[in-house]
Amino acid sequence: MSCNKLKKYELGKISSAKFERHARECAICQEKIRQDVQLMSMAKSLQEEPIYAPQLWGRIEESLHKEKEEEKERERLQGEGDMSAAGAIRGRAFRFKFFPLLPAAAAILVAAGLGIYFGLRALSTPPSSGLLERQALAKIEKIEREHMKAIEELEKKALPRMASLDQEMMLLYRDKLETINSQIERCKEALASNPANAHIRHYLLAALQDKKGTLAELLSYKQEKSM
Amino acid sequence: MDEESIIRQCQEGDLLAYRAIYERYEQPLLRTALRLLGQKQDAEDAVQEAFLKLYRSINNFKRGSKLSTYLFRILLNSCFDILRTRNRAEFADTETENLPYYSPHESRFNIERAIDELPHQMRICFILFAVEEFGQEEIAQILDKSLGTVKATIHRAKARLRSLLSDSVMEVKA
Q1: Which residues contact B140 (CB under 8 A, 6 or more apart)?
Q2: R_g (Cα) of chain B, nearest Å
């Protein structure tokens, strides 16, 4: 013998008043309720035994202090305009934890940032060296266009996925992409007045590759949401 | 200190406010993580990671939200990360085929064993509902699921546990 009224009640398909009236007459439901009460009481009893973790707060406090220090350093770097290094600190824990290939990407990013800094400084002086031959420049521009086209395609697929990530992941990816975009823009601005500067071309390429990699990574990132 | 003040202090970077949160939620967090991960060291790692994530995301905490809901959501994500790293088969949420034997004399041991036998999501829902006493709507928010899904999952978990325990502790009398 079976009765599905308790199930209907628990799923919200019948009201508590209706179920109560039914349960007064139904021995099966009465037994299930008795078992439920016992089950919930047993489950609650699990609260009674404390878990002893005397070192845990110390570890947490240490990691929070460390994070706070990194945050200060990041703010300092941002204040000085070195966005890529700041971005590298911001996402460091996330990258190393979730994506084993990210240290390499981070290295490219930091190198690109530092490179841009020095590259842009070099712009203030006439480009006596590093000028590309016309033919080489055309080749590089072609590669850049290919990267940009690939990035456009990836963006179409990857950016909508960002909305489905949990908030922290979404913010980390957004920060990283913003940092890379800012680098790309700075390179483009610098190249507008000096298109043949090999250094800046090199940094632009690194930034484009990094963006492509980040978008691909975002696409392959799977969040556990299955019930 | 009320929760809103604690959160405001956390947002100002006051680490003592995090300590207040820790003292309030240490046991529920550790208990839940331990039930999901099975090992104390992993449970401690998950709680530590949860606090670090809380610190990083505290400015995104919406006013009017419940801290417990937010914190448990972060904790579960940390537990998922650890499980993912471990690549444990149980994370696939497979149905349990072979039910173990439970001694009828040790009810706490029995209920712990029985909970551990539940598929992953059933276990999470039941722990949050029955052990940590979250409301079903809060659980839906923590797990980012619909209320209907949570209700159905808890119902299935209870039915499964009743069945697991009926031959031992409960000994249903006809």
Answers
A1: B146, B147, B149, B150
A2: 17
Residues of A in contact with B27 (CB under 8 A): 47, 50-51
Task: Compute the distance between CA of residue B39 and CA of residue B32 in angstroms, rounded to an integer.
Answer: 11
Q: Where are the alpha helices (DSSP H) in B1-146?
A: 3-11, 15-37, 40-57, 67-86, 107-117, 120-126, 136-143
CB B128, CB B134: distance < 8 Å: yes
Contact check, Cβ <8 Å, A51/B121: no
**Cα distance between residue A103 and residue A70, in whole Å:** 17
Q: Residue A227 pLDDT > 50, yes or no?
A: no
Measured in degrees and rounded to the nearest 5, phi and psi for residue B28 equal -60, -40
Q: Which ipTM score applies to this complex? A: 0.81
Helix axes B67-86, B15-37, angle to 10 degrees: 50
pLDDT tens readout for residues A23-55: 999 999 998 898 889 899 999 988 888 899 999
**Is residue B92 within 8 Å of B56, Cβ to Cβ?**
no
> Among all residues of chain B, which has the CA nearest to that of A7?
B155
Instruction: Give me the sign of the Cα torsion angle B98, B85, B156, A225.
Output: negative
Determine the residue among B37, B90, B155 to mutate to test chain A binding: the one whose Cβ has the most chain A Cβ atoms within 10 Å.
B155
Task: Map tokens 């439901």 to a residue.
Answer: A29
**Model pTM greater than 0.90?**
no
List Cα–Cα distances, B58 to A34, B94, B170, in angstroms: 43, 35, 44
Burial code (b: 16+ CB inside 10 Å, e: under 16) for B14-30 equals eeebbbbbbebbbebbb
Asked if A1 is an interface residue toward chain B (Cβ–Cβ < 8 A), one would say: no
Q: Give backbone dihedrals phi and psi of A178, rounded to 5 degrees, phi first.
A: -65, -40
Longest CA–CA span in chain A (Å) reads: 97
Query: How far apart are the C-alpha atoms of A138 and A87, rounded to whole Å?
Result: 32
Q: What residues form DSSP beta bridges with A197?
A: A131
Q: What is the per-residue burial (b if ≥16 Cβ within 10 Å, else e) of B104-121?
A: eeebeebbbbbbebbbbb
> pLDDT per residue over A151-185, tens digit each?
888 888 888 877 777 766 777 777 778 778 877 87
